Structure formats: C-alpha cells, structure tokens
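Suppose you are handed a protein chain with no further information: no name, no annotation, nothing but its sequence. What can you learn? This example shows the usual starting point.
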Amino acid sequence: MKLLLNLLLLVVLSGLTAAAVVSHQAADVSGIASAKDSTPVDVVDVLEQAAIKRSAPLEVSEADLNQYLAATLKGAQNGALADVTRLERALVDLEPGRARIVLCWHTSGVRTTTTLDLTCSRKGGDHRTEITGGAAGRLILMRGFLEPLLPSYRALATACEVEIKALLNMTRIEIAKDKLLLDPRY
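A reasonable first move is to predict its three-dimensional structure. Written in structure tokens, the prediction is:
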C-alpha cells in the first residue's frame, strides 16, 4: 500500500513539474501578423467614421490591429515584480469565430506569454463577449484556471476602453481569418 501511495505521489509531482515547465515556455506567436514599419492606421477614427456614416461594411485586418496596439499601448508593471517584469507587447490573433489576445512579458530576461480566447455574439441588441479558454505559456488552461491572468486582461480592457466602445457601436461583428468584418448598417 505504501508503495502504491509513493508511486501515486511521484506521478502527481511529475505532472505538476511538467505543467510548470510547459507554462514557462513562451507560446509561438510567429503566425500572428504583427506591427509593420509604416504609419499605424488609427483604428478608432476608422471605426467612428464608419459608425457615423453607416454606409458600408468595414474590414479591419489583424496586422492593422496589432500595429495600432504597438503604437498606442504602453504597459507598466505594478507591485513587487515591477523591477523584473515588463510588458513587451499585446497581440491579437483572429481566427474564424474567435479572437486570441496574447500578452508577451519579459521576466528577468525570459520571455513568457499569456493567452485569452474570446468569442463575440449578439443577444438581442447587445454584443456579448465570452471567454472560452486560454493559456499560460504553452500550457492550455480551462476557464476556471484563468482567474490569476484576468487582472492583466482587465487592465488591458481599461486601457483600450475607447477602442472597445467604438467597436461595439457596430451592428454586426464577425471574426474571420486574420480580419474583423464589421457592419455599421442597421
């Protein structure tokens, strides 16, 4: 019985060690269209103009979103880890029906990432955003285990409040491969 208990304890500790190693490996972000060297598109202005005119559907590319975030978003770490951790960048990866928000961090010279998967649907007259999953590094997490990551994403949502409000003024929001399809028409 004692041998069985020790084997079970060994398996559990091995699993926890493997999870810790995988969660500290940075996720692959090479497939995400990132910032170009050209002048960033003012996404808020484009969305506000489309909401005012309400004349035609609008397409915002993943590259434009990431370029805009790189130009406008400046992050700062608070608390005890402020000296060793800094936010490198925030990226948006658009896949059919889902948006993946990736935060890239530098912690003591090591790059780490956190990921949050979102879907957007329309119920009645309101847009609803739902968290469907996420990851810490390469370790995929279920929704319940994402709670420690949420304060960073809430701070990101607060920093992008103007952009989010402009986006939610659209009548129809569809997430397609590498682009947002927006329709401001009624």
